Amino acid sequence: MMSSKVLKLIIAITASFIDFWKHVVGKFKKIAVLDSDYVNTGCKKIIPKSVNYHFTRRCNYECGFCFHTAKTSYMLNLVDAKMGLKMLKDAGMEKINFSGGEPFLPERGRHLGEMAKFCKAELKLPSVTIVSNGSLIKESWFQKYGEYVDILAISCDSFYEDTNKAIGRGQGDKNHVEQLMKVKNWCEKYDVLFKINTVVNTYNHDEDMSEKILTLNPIRWKVFQCLLLEGENVGPEALRNAESFYISEEIFNTFLERHKNVKCLVPESNTKMQNSYLILDEYMRFLDCTSGLKLPSKSILDIGVSNALQFSGFDEAMFKKRGGVYKWSKEANKLKW
Ligand code: SF4
């Protein structure tokens, strides 16, 4: 017969053995969750449907209000960039917007063209769009890459060259407006939808742009209120001081009122703009602008898309409210507009 002392010892050893395995299994479970590319922080999982990838900060213009300034000259190589784009597609991305800096600057647009081609031809994204100042675009680029682009948005804040120069939208003797017309014609010729972006600021808020915009007939005219972002265009760390460009909501609304007959106008005030974009920087880090600063997450290439998204500050409700989901491909445009 086993003594009660031995029996107690066996029970104690068994209990600590079970505890030990519980601990080990728990740890493995934790690692599995981390590896699954999503840390469940209790937050709603964000699907990155529409992403703005500012892949370069370098630019040939010097707009006084620029809020994505040349703080670094870094750019991911094409292989890594494509890997990141594929990860975003796997996480639910439907629309990619390539932006800068000036996206046509690196390798005279080849880097941009190859990414657009990859997104459209290989990832089969419904929408590939670009925002550019337009100055470096050539017809040969459209011949090679036009078919991979749904929408090209060109920045134009004024139809007066003096105003453009005062803002900093210009390089040497190049005429910004003449180049805008050329790009518009190439868009038509190569079947790319044409869009115009305008930043309303102290230099152009009095202008009436209606007639010219109606002639150019873009699919969308996005009108932004000049935005101040600490560390980018305001504050001691910033490369620009945009305070003298800043206008109040009231002045912005007066500009909108003056152009109310332009049906393709889509206004975007600071409140709408600040957190309703998913912004990826040159390292593929999401930038959180909720605090008025741009706080970067870790790169999606290091921690995965879903983990990085938890630090993006993205306001999904505002994204929908500002009409973030629209007919954003050439096909949708042909079928339903
Ligand atoms: S064109 Fe765009 S990126 Fe270049 S300086 Fe102007 S606002 Fe900045």
UniProtKB/TrEMBL annotation:
Keywords: 4Fe-4S, Antiviral defense, Endoplasmic reticulum, Immunity, Innate immunity, Iron, Iron-sulfur, Membrane, Metal-binding, S-adenosyl-L-methionine. Its cofactor is [4Fe-4S] cluster. One of its GO terms (cellular component) is endoplasmic reticulum membrane. Residues 45-265 form the Radical SAM core domain. One of its GO terms (biological process) is innate immune response. The keyword Membrane applies. It is found in: Endoplasmic reticulum membrane. The keyword S-adenosyl-L-methionine applies. GO terms for molecular function: 4 iron, 4 sulfur cluster binding; catalytic activity; metal ion binding. InterPro entries: Aldolase_TIM (IPR013785), Elp3/MiaA/NifB-like_rSAM (IPR006638), RSAD2 (IPR026372), RSAD2/Viperin_antiviral (IPR051196), rSAM (IPR007197), rSAM_sf (IPR058240). Belongs to the radical SAM superfamily. RSAD2 family. This is S-adenosylmethionine-dependent nucleotide dehydratase RSAD2.
